[in-house]
Design brief:
11 helices
């Protein structure tokens, strides 16, 4: 066994709100099988933290960073840091993000209201090489219809939730404003709403 194999994983806690990172970090620090790494609030600090850790690493990831939604963060992790294991932490009201996180290959899901009991257990399973999804999450997903939204539509909805205008979304994604309007029209039809507010409410609640 190499020295790297013996090294306990570093846990990087990433969320747009530093206070959330600190709260999760205080829990991670009490788990003897892992080492608490730095906090990350945006893509640059997450990349830096990962680049500085060549050994085993686990990212505890909230549904948004300051400059990226969950889909974009997971895409970056899968593409550039495939060795990192990822646990997504979300509130019950953010269940739509859980669905997309599982599709994007997250290794574990932890609901915020069960964080004290479930996060240590999930990290323990990851250390042993096992992914873990809470049974209540699996039951809820298995009872739902297939997600009708495309990945791009999830991305646009995530930016809507963050309060970006059509112009800001077009700039962020490198698309024209007319293309964004086309996507929004398709999203409204799929969600059976006729306004941005209605789309945001349904998306955040996961009721689509």
């Amino acid at each position: 066994m190499t020295e790297t194999d013996k090294t306990p994983p570093d846990v990087i806690v990433a969320d747009r709100q530093l206070i959330v990172c600190q709260g999760l970090g205080s829990l991670v620090a009490q788990i003897p099988e892992v080492r608490l790494g730095p906090f990350a609030t945006d893509m640059a600090s997450l990349r830096k933290a990962l680049s500085e850790r060549p050994g085993p690493v686990i990212v505890v990831l909230g549904v948004r960073l300051a400059d990226a939604d969950l889909a974009r963060a997971l895409d970056m992790l899968r593409r550039d840091y495939a060795r990192a294991m990822v646990v997504v932490v979300a509130e019950e009201s953010e269940f739509a993000f859980i669905r997309s996180a599982i599709k994007a290959g997250a290794h574990g899901i932890c609901m915020m209201d069960q964080i004290l009991t479930n996060l240590p257990r999930i990290l323990g399973h990851l250390i042993e090489g096992h992914s873990i999804l809470p049974i209540e999450v699996l039951k809820r997903l298995s009872g739902e219809q297939t997600d009708a939204l495309t990945r791009r539509e999830h991305e646009i909805l995530g930016l809507l939730v963050d309060g970006l205008t059509n112009f800001q979304i077009s700039a962020r994604l490198g698309l024209s404003e007319n293309t964004i309007k086309y996507y929004l029209k398709a999203i409204y039809q799929k969600l059976d709403v006729n306004s941005r507010g209605g789309a945001i409410a349904k998306y955040v609640a996961g009721t689509y």
